[in-house]
Amino acid sequence: xxxxxxxxxxxxxxxxxxxxxxxxxxxxxxxxxxxxxxxxxxxxxxxxxxxxxxxxxxxxxxxxxxxxxxxxxxxxxxxxxxxxxxxxxxxxxxxxxxxxxxxxxxxxxxxxxxxxxxxxxxxxxxxxxxxxxxxxxxxxxxxxxxxxxxxxxxxxxxxxxxxxxxxxxxxxxxxxxxxxxxxxxxxxxxxxxxxxxxxxxxxxxxxxxxxxxxxxxxxxxxxxxxxxxxxxxxxxxxxxxxxxxxxx
Length: 248
Ligand SMILES: NC(=O)c1ccc[n+]([C@@H]2O[C@H](COP(=O)([O-])OP(=O)(O)OC[C@H]3O[C@@H](n4cnc5c(N)ncnc54)[C@H](OP(=O)(O)O)[C@@H]3O)[C@@H](O)[C@H]2O)c1
Fold this sequence. Notes:
Layout: E1 8-11, H1 17-28, E2 32-37, H2 41-53, E3 57-62, H3 68-82, E4 87-90, H4 107-129, E5 137-141, H5 155-176, E6 181-187, H6 202-207, H7 217-228, E7 239-242
Parallel strand pairs: 1-2, 1-4, 2-3, 4-5, 5-6, 6-7
Pfam family, one: adh_short_C2
InterPro entries: NAD(P)-bd_dom_sf (IPR036291), Sc_DH/Rdtase_CS (IPR020904), SDR_fam (IPR002347)
Protein name: 3-oxoacyl-[acyl-carrier protein] reductase
């Protein structure tokens, strides 16, 4: 499969979980992928090795999404090194939340989540928009909690992800005339370090899903690949739930 031959993709948070699956999928389909990580250098190197062993082109850069300027610089560097940017995937995110009034919801936690889940995404899109041409693709990983909380304790995380979906609708208008599409994918429960299939919420979540199971990171990556492809050229400003029916 070479749908993304000669394309350059930038993916935030590609060392583990959903982001790693996105990196591998885009690279397997021919894209030259640059991805960020913040702390798991060993896991980032393992992703690089796996992609290279399969014949793909990939580069890992340590860039904290908590520092929006650093994200912008990493995108600028990618364009300077590789000459173009075709696909941006805003995947890095954190799940920091607790019920309203809980002391864990201090201002530092609020700032960190807003910085990573919103501020870095906005900055990445602003930067990418300066470099993308016709056919450009911007895909952000929101969350099903951006549309529906469903249970207590996810207000702050869900609010940050609702912001991503809201920005996405505006960016679709900003960039549509240039032939660039902008979409958000809203995963439901996906088995990763953030939300393990055997975690505290797992049984409750599965009981509320028509498909009754957690998703796999590869099932989100396949939706990213579709939205990044030319086949999805008439889709913009939308949120695509990849959630086993949780929002149904
Ligand atoms: N798993 C789910 O059920 C689920 C459901 C809905 C939405 N999502 C969303 O999907 C995305 C990926 O989630 P996941 O489950 O794959 O998470 P994960 O297993 O916790 O992996 C997070 C990835 O993001 C990176 N990352 C975290 N903070 C970062 C930062 N400050 N700067 C740069 N990279 C950072 C991590 O890098 P390091 O390895 O270096 O730490 C890692 O590669 C997130 O936006 C999340 O909100 C997940």
